[in-house]
Write a structure and sequence with these properties.
Blueprint: E1 24-25, E2 36-42, H1 46-57, E3 62-66, E4 80-82, H2 86-95, H3 100-105, E5 108-114, E6 124-129, H4 131-143, E7 148-152, E8 155-161, E9 171-178, H5 180-187, E10 189-194, E11 198-203, E12 216-220, E13 225-229, E14 240-248, E15 257-260, E16 263-266, H6 277-284, E17 289-296, E18 299-301, E19 311-313, E20 339-343, H7 346-354, H8 360-363, H9 375-381, E21 388-393, E22 400-404, H10 412-419, E23 430-432, E24 435-442, E25 456-457, E26 459-461, H11 471-489, H12 503-514, H13 538-550, H14 555-577, E27 579-580, H15 582-588, E28 602-603, H16 604-607, H17 615-621, H18 623-626, H19 633-644, H20 646-663, H21 683-692, H22 697-701, H23 708-729, H24 741-745
Length: about 750
């Protein structure tokens, strides 16, 4: 554990104040006595925990800075993970050895696969989660992660140094400055220390210990406790933590404001202070800042609800786990908790419409979530309609119910009145009112697909700071940011997931090329290749890359993915090799309507495509050699899915290869679109390209306003640049990835 006693002085570097107006400047990348890490992660939410764990898995000495250790893993809004599109992200996070999927399998109280009426490509794995259990399990995971230290504290500023040559960016981040007022409160505490992993607050120390002129850290080996007590001599002089890479996962804390009715309070969430200084630093550095809003429903006492008159939803049997390494979840289906469905009515509409003048959150110009709107927004946008309200349990031993779909920011007394108008809630007691949160976000077109910023080298953004909403979207970005921050330290190429490889790639590509003016949420409809990007095959798409290119995947997970891949290939090969006449198949499986008009032999793989046929039924008809493929339920299900999509996947694979050829055409990192003369581009297109800085021709083609003609001219520029580089290198040119001009004229 580092000592905070020695705090080095910052020496102003010869950087232009005009370009770097606010952040701390340093010509000394590691001041004597100040702590130094490979990666520092700011924020302990869903993005921050995944980022810190991913960086540590990649081998980087990592520091996770959070306001309070006891809020790590806190589910600030809904008590659930997954859903349509979001379940895909959960599987991909798990394929890269992320945490949240495994934690959900240990903490859920109701597991359900949504969209079952449609094909498996768009199934949505979802689970209601026990808030308390999830937080406990996540904290246990984080505090036991090798190479990861957890520190309580608030970040007020960034430390900047001269930029690295050969990389875009006006400067480089080399650490963070902690808020001393926050540290003063944190360090006046008794901490339980975890050697090599950090410490967590337990109880305040005696008052006498809180009076000291400087930091005083003592580690008692026998009791294994670490005591920190201090009074900073100058609250304006923060403590520095130096780092090779910094990841900001600030959530809704950047100049966050909580709103209930007409009352507003500075807060990142209810009860937590916002981050003001860091928001000002980012804005003065030149980042384009926007404003978004979100909200959360009131919480209702469970015993005050009449569930007997409501529609009941039971969990799936068997339950499908999120993680590939788990065969089942921690709790049996019969022990899981049900959810219940009720609806709003005209009385609810009347209360909302009559009291809009008492609701400042609705009047705000900041954009709210389109696909998870407040009940006020739904009533205004869809008048005279009934809206669903799902009553979801918050935990096995929790007395609270979360009314999903009832996000509201009316004054508390009106919220209670509104609740009483809803069927089943006529006698309900509101325990906590709903509230809105307004916060700053950074335009995501200012980051690379690696999530590193254009303006500041080695500074990464992940989560709601990039304009997304939802635990899953934040966690997915956290994994990518953590991996790439670690790779940046070791000077290795970034780990990029393209939109042909995963929903993570679709999300990041959407954000970095198109930006967002409202909270971004993942849906299956956003992916062009959703038949290939299914929940069941996320491991085959990402686990091997994560293991070989990033080092973020464990050997155990890699071995399991390799076994599954080889088993699938073997199983498909066997199914293709088994051929009988259609009449014989009809005799073997009489309950299935197999056409006997076909003269050619029918493969077992083709029989498996019938909706009524699964591997169990097929193995009964042909025990040898198919029986062994039914011993693993997941393998049997995946063979069925592979068979169902066999023909369409061949066509989609050709489309994917076309997109991948576009993605192979790299644009120069240091290309100055505003001044380059070798390419004919309009001023408007130049500005859009300069702001988004696409890495490839494919990414450039997806930027709104970049015309097909501009893409053709960029293609010419790339080809000419490659030819010049080839001549300089003295090696033969290869044009295997270049498209013809005619292809781009079709765009």
């Amino acid at each position: 554990m580092f000592s905070l006693r020695g705090r080095g002085l910052w020496v102003a570097a010869s950087l232009s104040r005009q370009h770097l107006p606010s952040a701390r400047l340093s010509g000394d990348c590691s001041a004597p006595g100040s702590p130094h890490f490979d990666v520092v992660v700011v924020g302990g939410g869903h993005a921050g925990t995944e980022a810190a764990a991913a960086a540590a898995r990649c081998g980087s000495q990592t520091l996770l800075l959070t306001h309070r250790v006891d809020t790590i893993g806190q589910m600030s809004c809904n008590p659930s993970f997954g859903g349509i599109g979001k379940g895909h992200l959960m599987r991909e996070i798990d394929a890269l050895d992320g945490l949240c999927s495994r934690i959900c399998d240990q903490s859920g109280v109701h597991y359900k696969v949504l969209n079952r009426r449609k094909g498996p490509a768009v199934w949505g794995l979802r689970a209601q989660i026990d808030r308390k259990l999830y937080k406990q399990n996540m904290q246990k995971e984080i505090l036991n992660t090798p190479l990861l230290t957890v520190q309580e504290g608030a970040v007020e500023d960034l430390i900047l140094t001269q930029p690295e040559p050969g990389h875009p960016g006006r400067c480089r981040v080399s650490g963070v400055v902690l808020d001393c007022w926050g540290l003063n409160q944190v360090l006046h505490a008794k901490h339980k220390f975890y050697p090599g992993r950090g410490f967590t607050s337990v109880v305040p120390p005696p008052a006498s210990q809180a009076e000291g002129p400087e930091f005083d850290g003592r580690y008692q080996k026998k009791k294994k406790k670490f005591y920190l007590c201090a009074v900073l001599p100058n609250p304006m002089d923060g403590s520095a933590v130096h780092a090779e890479s910094v990841i900001l996962t600030t959530g809704t804390f950047l100049r966050g404001t909580v709103v209930i009715g007409l009352e507003t309070h500075p807060a990142g969430r209810l009860g937590d202070q916002p981050s003001i200084g860091l928001a000002q630093t980012l804005e003065k550095l030149g980042f384009v800042v926007g404003r978004l809003k979100t909200g959360t429903p009131p919480r209702i006492a469970k015993e005050s609800i009449d569930f007997s008159i409501l529609n009941k939803q039971t969990p799936d049997d068997p339950s499908v786990p999120f993680s590939f390494v788990n065969e089942t979840v921690w709790i049996k289906p019969e022990d899981q908790l049900p959810c219940h469905l009720t609806h709003t009515n005209s009385a609810v509409d009347a209360i909302i419409l009559e009291n809009l003048h008492l609701n400042s959150h609705v009047k705000e110009t900041a954009s709210g979530p389109r696909y998870c709107p407040s009940i006020e927004s739904k009533v205004l946008r869809f008048p005279n309609r009934v809206h669903q309200v799902w009553l979801e349990p918050e935990g096995m031993d929790s007395d609270l119910i979360y009314p999903q779909g009832l996000s509201v920011t009316l004054p508390a007394e009106l919220q209670q009145k509104m609740i009483l108008c809803i069927r089943g809630l006529e006698k309900a007691k509101m325990v906590q009112p709903g509230y809105g949160v307004q916060y700053d976000y950074l335009d995501p077109r200012q980051i690379e697909p690696s999530l590193e910023t254009h303006l500041v080298q080695r500074l990464f953004f992940a989560g709601q700071i990039n304009g997304t909403t939802g635990y899953e979207e934040a966690a997915a970005q956290g994994v990518i940011a953590g991996v790439n921050a670690s790779l940046r330290v070791s000077r290795k190429p970034p780990f990029i997931v393209s939109r042909t490889e995963g929903y993570i790639g679709v999300m990041i590509d959407d954000l970095t090329t198109q930006g967002t003016s409202e909270p971004y949420r993942m849906f299956t409809s956003r992916a062009e290749f959703r038949l290939s990007l299914r929940p069941d095959n996320a491991d085959s798409r990402l686990t091997f890359r994560g293991y070989e290119e990033a080092g973020c995947v464990s050997q155990q997970r890699y071995n399991r993915a390799a076994w599954m891949k080889s088993s699938l290939e073997e199983g498909i090969s066997v199914l293709k090799s088994i051929e009988f006449s259609s009449s014989k198949w009809k005799k073997l499986i009489p309950q299935v309507s197999i056409s006997t008009s076909r003269s050619l032999p029918v493969r077992a793989l083709d029989v498996l495509k019938y909706e009524e046929v699964d591997m169990e039924l097929l193995a009964k008809a042909v025990p040898d050699p198919l029986k062994k493929y039914t011993e693993c339920r997941e393998l049997a299900e995946r063979l069925k899915i592979e068979a169902s999509y066999e023909s369409v996947l061949l066509c989609q694979q050709q489309e994917i290869q076309e997109v991948q050829r576009d993605e192979a055409l790299q644009l120069p990192e240091d290309l100055d679109y505003l001044s380059v003369r070798d390419v004919s581009l309009s001023h408007e297109v130049r500005e859009k390209l300069h702001f988004s800085r696409p890495r490839t021709i494919g990414a450039a083609s997806r930027i709104p306003g970049v015309t097909p003609a501009a893409i053709i001219n960029l293609l010419k520029f790339v080809k000419t640049t490659q030819q010049r580089q080839t001549v300089m290198n003295g090696s033969p040119q290869t044009d295997q990835h270049l498209h013809s001009r005619a292809k781009f004229q079709e765009l």
